[in-house]
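Final report, results section. Input specification for complex C-07:
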Amino acid sequence: MLLLPLVMFAQQTVKGKVTEAAGGTALPGVGVIIKGTTIGAATDFDGNYILEKVKPTDVLVFSYVGFNTQSVTVGNNTTINIILTESAESLDEVVIIGYGTTTVKDATGSVAAVTAKDFNKGNIVTPASLIQGRVAGVDIVSDGAPGGGSTIRIRGGSSLGASNDPLIVIDGLPISNSTVGGSTSVLSSINPNDIESFSILKDASATAIYGSRASNGVIIITTKKGKQDFQVDVNIKTGYQTLADKIDLFSAAEFRDLIARRIEEGQTGISLAQLGNANTDWQDEIYQESFTSDNSISLSGAVLENLPARLSIGNTQQPGLRKTSKFERTSIALNLNPKFFKDALKVNFNVNASAEKNRFADGVEGTALLFDPTQPVYDPTSPFGGFFEYHTNGEPNNAPRNPVASLMQRKNTSVVERLFGNVEFDYKLFFLPELRAVVNLGYDRSQGDGSNTLSDQSINGYRPKINTPFLGSYSEYTSERKNSLLDSYLAYNKKFENVNIEVTGGYSYQKFEGEDFNTGNTIDPDAESDVNTHPDVVLIGFFGRTNLSFMDKYLLTLSYRRDGTSRFSEANRWGNFPAAALAWKINEEEFLKDSNTLSTLKLRLGWGITGQQDIPASYAYLGRHLTGDAVSQYIFGETAIVVGIPQSRFEAIKWEETTTYNAGLDFGFANDRITGSAEVYLKESKDLLANVAVADGSNFSNAGWQNIGKFTSKGVEFSLGADIVKTADVNWNMNYNINVNETEIDELALGQDLEVGGIAGGTGSRIQVHREGFAPYSYFVFKQLYDTAGNPIEGAYADINQDGISNLSDRYIYKKPNADITMGFQSAIDYRNFDLSFNLRASIGNYMYNNVNSDRAQYNDLQATTALGNAPTSVLESNFVETSNVLISDYFIENASFLKMDNLTFGYTFNKFQKDLSSIHVFGGVQNVFTITNYSGLDPEIYGGIDNTIYPRARTFLMGANIKF
Amino acid sequence: MKTKNIYKFYFFFGLLFILSACTDDLNVTPKDDDEFLSEAFYAKPTAYKQALAGIYGNLSLTGTTGSGSSNLQGIDAGTSQYVRTLWYLQDLAADEPIWSYENDEGGAVREIQRNTWGPSNTILLGFFSRAMFSVALTNDFLRQSSPEALEARGHTDVLGNDIKAYRAEARLLRALAYYNLMDLFGKAAFVTENDPVGTFQGPQYDRAQLFQFIESELIAIEGDLVAPRQNEYARADKAVAWTILAKIYLNAKVYIGVDKNTECITYSKKVIQSGYQLASNYSLNFLADNDSNEAGRNEIIFATVSDGVVTQNYGATTVIINGEVGSKEGNAAALGAQGWGGALRVRKQFANKFLGGAVPLTDKRNTLITSGRTADIVDVGDRDSGFIITKFKNVTSTGVPGSDPTFVDTDFPMFRLADVYLMFAEAVVRGGTGGTTGEAVAYVNLLRTRASSTLITSSNLNLDFLIDERSRELYWEGHRRQDLIRFGKFTGSTYNWAFKGGSPGGIALPGHFNVYPMPANNLAANPNLTQNPGY
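Structure output:
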């Protein structure tokens, strides 16, 4: 018995050298593993490896990132030299498109793929940050709040009033853009570490298969799947968050001087007696520096012998910059990918469960800017929990409220549990193997529970009458969103001699449900709770697509979708969305086939029509009545009557349609060491859905959701990726992308202006306008007049309409918030085991309305009702006195072009750590490294172009490790 | 095995077909407990009163979900309240109040109170749309409560005669809206229950057409309206219709170029003879319990409701009372509202109506606070300058504060007997027949007596006296601009007040300012409407 192993399993030592096919150079660090085991080795710097105790039946697997994996059965060999060929991965890379896949090589539409290895590094809390700045024409503006969402715009959006958010599809399940109550954003519950790839479909020929929801582009997120080989991946990351910048205010000392000077200059309503003795920087007081952590572990491998599975657990702790705010997420993802019936039935099962815990902090930036810096944070004699407040014997004065107290005395927390996932059955029909039937069932449910407590010591609490004690406030809420999906389609793929045919046809059903419950303030006996049940939104689609490829040179894609939505009446609810695309792989032609210099050249032309129906109105076509809530009743005699109000009704409401034209040229030089593409596009939206005016008296509002006008978005995109240096020791690759985009409103119903863009500084004030012939959200302002010294003259504006009266009719259009040009640049350098990478992003031609200055930087703001108020120091430049004279001035429209370095990461990899195949990558870095801009406010990057204080973006110093074994 | 697989195949195809049948799911209906298909809403006979309350509610409420909600767009929700915008356009635009936060509505408030308005002013949009919303609500109610509709739902017998009064009241509220629009804009889109819902563009009615409609409509519904003082509080009766008629007749010269003072006297008399009485104390009209105290029972002809618990709104009385709280007086408790730091003050010319010697300072209608303040306002943003008043209060007649420190319980008295007395007197002075100077002097002296002020004689009773007396009695009640126009003092320079035309001293206004410009957005949405001359 003891001899048996020796006889049965003769063991030998195998050695060899691994080289690169192209240059023949040795490849260090290549993994050599005995298949089905964890035994293995890695090549040394000279590409040599040695493996002992190998059996002849063993299969050696040679793998190296960027090269095709090779397997060799040992047999009698003692020396096995291997030449690895580079995987032309960028071109053979599978790209997920709607209801199927393609490859970069065969894609006919404008599709950009970013996979895990290319994701942004650094402090990534929510998924969108992974690709910020990475794809031409995809603009992502993140939020500073912990776990906050991002605003994503692809090619400038295509709607005026309807949603401009792209459709996000996770593992085949289109998710809703409606955030459940208590959650920070729709993507916040997803652990970025679980994401394998993003596919961004930009033009209609690619997106039209999603028909009604594709006008703003589609982002397809694919989560990581189970693999046959066992692997454990551990990520540990910790960060230290700091405040990157503050708004320039008067310090306590400067403030004392300023007040004295202004009194001398004759300003009334302020006095030196109002000054306190403290020196408080209120911006410092409302913010905190804190540690963040992000840890995850994933196990991937085959369970039950051949069921590929992946399990991942992640936890993120992200305290916010604003005191008390916090985001915490724990997520579990499980993927099972079994196959049955001799692989005829493939099942893809993904489930993701997460719990998000939030503590929200009120936006107290405004009060922090205003609060007198000579007053203290704490006051031992204060009846308001020891916080300084302006009061007379406990009765509040009409004055600002202590922002630190506002933060510390409120506890606004939520727990959001989300379960989403899908199961996909992909069945290859036995009698016709070219035909597959696919059924995908998806489900997404979020449940938010929250409570909001205000201390009874707070000056902001509820009280039934003046001159009575404050009672605080307390409310609870629950919120639920459900989204269920059923997709089924048949896919036929057959290769004839010179022709490859792919036909897909199917059906999609999706339903969105939602409900919110709020108790109201339970301390207030008159407050009533209310359940708000959202109308269902149901979307049904029938779709078909044909991909034809002739001689692997000429590609044709035709797709068609017919979509129905519950938002429109039976007569208008169905929309037809066709698309066509042609591609010509020029490099496959004889005259280029053998060229290594120009290794890829593909011309793509696409056209398609997509739709839009995502508006807040769920059934504007129906005649409905709303009954008033408890505080909106009317009293007849002594009886309160619940009022019944008819709701505005637009029977003719129908699809908004966007026609997109796209032409692209993909190219690759030097065996695709340099690749890139150039694209031009034109998007024309008609029947724009917008909430616009209706003739008064005929409907139950003065405005409503109607189809009005036309909108154009056009632009050029260019992206370039290059392996600049590629040697055994040094690898340097970079990526650059640029998008030049222009959007314009071509037509609005009856040519009317729509005033938009609410601002601070007066109830109901607006600063932007939609007008024919201009970019949407253009600033609509007075033209400031200046004196001979170049100083603005307060309240003096050009009489634009020359009627001799200075009024709102003198406003003109000046600049717009959207950038003309956006750029992204990434660089990654590896030197031996060291790596260094950074990202840059630039935005040019975007303007900002500095609402912080327009609302606060005036001398009269030094009087904050009965107290003193601080102001931005920019008042010293403008010397403006009264806000109402200057609020709408173009003086406050500033160029907010910027260059940002989002991330800088430096790392080192220890190979063969502990075990031969294990590795540890340790890294350190900085998130939000620097911003170069002429914008005078805190941050030039604010979606919408109105800077009325923001949740600041932290600068985070990071370190962490990624361990694989 | 093979057959089994064929079944699987059929199963997949079968599934596809079953799914295709689900397109009926696209017909969704409301699921919330506050939202109904209209037919479902009217399934209950009680719905008619709820819908009627909705039309009345449009005078106070801005939406169905609290003070921050609005049925309208293009204007801040709270600011869009019917009586608040009316008050801005009638009082803030004239010589009485001034609003400190001039940048509200992007400076639209500044334009109103400095008389520099243009078509893009959102206060104008707000009132035009709010009044036209009343028209739309009435039209819908008339369609839904037609005899045929009631018959179809089997409600005819249940509702009996009540529905007649409901329908007449709805028509009165529509006439009230058109009266306000005629007064402010001189024109409006004319839409009735016979026009379709949706995007119908009503034809433009000018002042003459609107006048004729309002007059005939109010006379037509007179028989169906409840007798004076016999309806539930806050619901309109015959006397409200008569008061509106008296108003349009008194202003007929302005509206249609014809004097109708005799008709004014006729209808004023009908009101006066309906059993109304002045409350014993002037201030009772403006207190938190003015729905139920002596004034509410006897003097107020029509009021719009406000309530700190069930009818919360940022409407006229909430704004006035919170606005009255001084920047440095600490008089929040006395007014029963926490206040907004001195939002409202008065112009010097108004203060002089009491301080200039025409009446004793002890006239009970004088609620000015002058101590520590200057009469002149140089800088509108300086809330410590200018006198303030305390006429409206969120405190009851027994001194109990209202039910909420922000949303007041005080109703807005749109029409009250004192106004009708002064209208009667004015129509007599203007040469109308049917009333005597003696009666006119007696009515004015009833007001003077109540105010513990000096009495007048027939020699005092002239137009110059009446325009000032109307201000002393009715200030901040939403009449001032209309009165000044009728007296020829609004435009031109016969009477300049602080910030008239924009400058602190006041300058002349061009004649076309006697009507407001048609708001640009409303004009664009209905091409049948034309801009007023001069704008």
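The longest strand of chain B covers residues 300-304. The CA atoms of residues 419 and 474 of chain B lie 7 Å apart. This concludes the modelling results for the funded period.
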